[in-house]
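Quick entry between incubations.
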Amino acid sequence: MKDTSLVASSPRRIRQNNEIAALQALHRAKRLSRADLARALNLNRSSSGHIIAELTVAGLVREMEDDRSFPREHARAGRPGVMIELVPDAVLFIGIEIGVEHITTVRIGLSGAVAHSRTEPFDGPAHSAADAIRHAVKGALADLSPEDIERLEGVGISTPSQLRPDGTVHLAPLLGWKNVNLSDLARQYLPGRVPVMVENDANAFAIGAGYSGLEMAGGVTLFVVMESGVGGGIVIDGKLLRGAHGLAGEIGHMLIPTEDGAARNLEEVVGLGSILTLYRKQTGRREASLEDFLADVEDRAPEAVAIAEIWAKALGHALAQTCRIIDPDRIVLGGSVAKLLPLIASRLTAHMKNAQEPGFPLPVVLLNAEANSGSAYGAACMLHQRYLSLESNRFADEPA
Amino acid sequence: MKDTSLVASSPRRIRQNNEIAALQALHRAKRLSRADLARALNLNRSSSGHIIAELTVAGLVREMEDDRSFPREHARAGRPGVMIELVPDAVLFIGIEIGVEHITTVRIGLSGAVAHSRTEPFDGPAHSAADAIRHAVKGALADLSPEDIERLEGVGISTPSQLRPDGTVHLAPLLGWKNVNLSDLARQYLPGRVPVMVENDANAFAIGAGYSGLEMAGGVTLFVVMESGVGGGIVIDGKLLRGAHGLAGEIGHMLIPTEDGAARNLEEVVGLGSILTLYRKQTGRREASLEDFLADVEDRAPEAVAIAEIWAKALGHALAQTCRIIDPDRIVLGGSVAKLLPLIASRLTAHMKNAQEPGFPLPVVLLNAEANSGSAYGAACMLHQRYLSLESNRFADEPA
DNA sequence: GAGGATTGTAATTTCATGCAACATATTACG
DNA sequence: CGTAATATGTTGCATGAAATTACAATCCTC
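Done. Structure below.
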């Protein structure tokens, strides 16, 4: 239904457009006076006032009361403005991650802050898609009051799967699912009004990692999440690049050369499994954990450092190749294995430089260590983002 | 100056927005009646009429006279609409490609069709940037009447160089340039009103190849241009992905494994130089041309086929790796070497499948054989695209 | 405490779109 | 061949949102 051409404009659509812009500006800035908003949107103060008046009666924004708590850092002359903020619990978004071993559920409010988070063990491959969705969605709704459900404005679902453009799961090898429409399954347990979105777990992670942090900056960002598997996502100016089959950014299966001459998948070299296998073999400690390994690297134990060097070389090669193609502004690493980064960041950049021609600019490589990352959070962010866009169904409801 | 937030809408901006949408729709559809336009833009017929009235007095569109020449293919009941079209020579855009050996100049009109094209030999490395720009721009303006210059709405410049985000040349190794602002140089010879844009030649080619053809479709398209060098560009939903340093899509320097175990640049294997060197060595004909080689491949001469096989394998590997990262909907090959594609397309796809895991979807690989490709054309298209967008300075002029 | 500066609000104006009605032009059908 | 049906283009009017202007309120500086 969404036209390719820019379909803007009608007398009332303008207001909707500006209200959305106002909400987005408030989301970014946390708090803004009416005059600030007018400047940010190139609007007249008068119009700005009308807009926030309408948003106030809608219950989405409010004047901040504890104005005094912010001691007016830039104390300029003139009457101070009253700060406006989003009402955090005006609406509610749920993000669900169905993994191979667990289900994680996250709730966020209009401000994007996490209101609740829960993880439970779950044997994914043992369940059908229908069972898993029923269990996950009903579980997510269980501790919600009727008023909460009234405020529910979106449910996002993240799974380790390959999706079609229409949102159906084409293939989820780790879960054994195939050709199922998770949206339709989930909608059975939700009010019809509530929008549902499904996304690949790596892509959802990328959205989440780029949504709250300071990486919200524009440009091209490559997110790489490293656990037992290695996935990734590309975010361009705050928008996810999905690609033709939702697989953009999946660098885990890039071929990289190894010492023995054979080419192997990146994820087979830098994934958690490979690292631990090597480390356990080297040390003989069959129960050694990632934390043990990290501690050894920090202490510069030779075996551990050698493994970290392999890791850095393989990852550096893959990232350098990727830079050739998308030329990112920054690369953000996440997942448990990424904790290696601060220990050998200089080796990684050295290997990247090495795999690249001299003079080719390289992006910064950052570690994402935020607590509220994870693809469940990202799935919730997707719907938060949708709500703060023209696709929001705050408008479709009006003809009632 | 361009805010990151969506700054739409004021009472008059709406009209500008809709006029632009109308021009874009007319550009895509070639001809549209007022009622067609109203449907395309979700507008009322009345508003549509007002808009094209305003565009008509501005001289940008007109009613088609030879209405009869189109024998009404879908003869439905009802009064037939009068078709509206863009006035091709209402405005003028110039694209200039400064290469290592030649300068190409292209003029296009509002409809995007090429009005004029000229190529002259030019020894790029022998000239400073200032000299080259002066020569190229003055040459491009030489055969223009004063009225033409009045209608000039943009000049695009394409060079084999690495650009900074602000449009200055960071480094142009083939030309020996460094740290020059080509826009500023070019503006000296142009009316101040005329916008100037500078772009990498591979990116400009990508824009041009995706602008007129049917590849104008949405989604992700990877364009690869293969001459002596191998460059490329990525177009997402009609917009160029530049990347942090304008180097996105430059797959020519990807490392690929070769038979002898050493990794080499893609462009050193599949570029024109490598192919001809191999072919000349194999056949002993030191003056053999690319056409000779292509003819031999078509005749299935064993030496030629073997070289083509190397080409297909290397290219297939690189494209497969690229698909892992950006998951394109389609790949379009251009440049003289791309003529190999139709001869061994099946081998290329076989190698791509081979370098990819089973089940991973692969995009179609197409050949761009259009006459009006080339980065000069693409550079002109950039300005055409800009004119049909909100950045157009049709609006900035008004306060006069 | 006076003056300057900035904010929020109200009244008025401007202007593009939507709506409804009508004249017009062509096809479909008896 | 004439009437009905259908679609287009135009006109006048209503609606609604933002710009403009003016004004009161609140704070800082001197």
